[in-house]
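[retry 2/3] CHY-type domain-containing protein: previous attempt timed out, resubmitting with same input.
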Amino acid sequence: MQKQFLYRQQETALRHTPRCCWNCCISSIAMCKHILNAQVSIRSPCCRRWFDCAECHQEQENHELLQSFDMTFACKKCKKCFRKDAREFEESDEYCPHCDNHFVLEALTPKPALKIEGEDARVDSRMLKDERVRQEEERTIFNVKDAPNRLG
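[retry 2/3] CHY-type domain-containing protein: success.
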């Protein structure tokens, strides 16, 4: 059992070298469920594996994330790797040096929502609201904004 574990560690160490191709390492990892608009993957300095965020590393690995100022990124648009120093991070460093993809964005986190699923909008568009048509306002003799206060 111990030999198999050591053999697997050696095999992954050989497969994931610094010159390893980006597709080999990144394509095996699923999309990040914590950040919906992740533009780059970050190589962790402790285990040299690629993750979209620190929470993904925490879920998949059994060790703490080693923090380092020298960060290695892999752009998901052009699929090229580059390094940045976190101590000297400027506004121009928010873009990929190869394709100018803006990778420092406000993170979109998934939120629970109640949605109605209908037929494909190209087939049946009755559920879509037409923004061009002016909607009729609700006509009443009472002030709708004061209604919750009057219910007592």
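[retry 2/3] CHY-type domain-containing protein: Helices lie at 2-15, 22-26, 54-60, 147-150.
[retry 2/3] clearing retry counter.
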